[in-house]
Amino acid sequence: MRDEKSKEEKMKIRKELVTLYVRQAEHFKLSDRPDFKVARQILEKAIGLQADHPLANYRLGYIHYRDSRYARAVYHFNIALGRTTTDSLSEVQMTLAHMFSVNCGIHIAREALFEIESTEGMFEPVDDEGAEKIKRYRTELLIQEGEMFERLYYRKIRNGQETIINETEFHDYSPAPRELVLKSSEEGRYALIHLEMPVELNMTFFNLLFLLSIRSQSTHQSLQTQLTELNGEGISNDNLRQSMSRLKKKMTSFDTLFNTISTTDKEGSRINAFELSKEWTVTILCRADDFLKNEV
What we know:
alpha+beta, six-stranded mixed beta sheet, 11 helices, 9 strands, 54% helix
């Protein structure tokens, strides 16, 4: 990028590099051993190249939020919500950015309230009117806090439609007959099927099932490309075949869920592809900020 003379080419490389940083940060955030510190450092590199990049600011805001740096989180959420000429958040991400900003405001207000309480005895007593105001605002804050913090945000994705659900709905959800549920949270990743024991998945297995579920047809080549993007690291053809073989052994219902069909590639050669059985539906439950549908 530094050596490129053309302004247009320089901007193109810059955009590709920012995209790479965002994807790589997500790899560190969602890997089997998450490293939020490294993810934050990489996102800061992306923002160093494009300060108003919506997705980079959104994801950095979320990391600050989970680390209780609420003022920094609000700062980045506000930037994320400002549309650029070429980039913007999805509708779900915009809704979540607003929600997290509200929660940040409540946290900041609560911290200020604790500060007031800790210093009340250090100053002259306030008059009756002032005392009443403090009492009223304290009560309003605690009511809002109780209502808002019941909503810890998760996503539910089914048939391409996304909805936001709370923590209770997330934990209480159980699969219906002929429904595969892919569930991801800080507690781990699981495949759930009606009346079967949950199957614990690593990141590669979870992403493989996700990709197989959202595509009408998936070839080995398309899976290899998309899995590389989702995992944030290169996946060779041998790696993919080994992962598929291990996943089939781990999930006894795999061949019932996904049909193997014959199709043709761009050169007209016959190849195998996978497709979701028409008898099955797939529901994905994940944390609000998981790197899934919108970035594939």
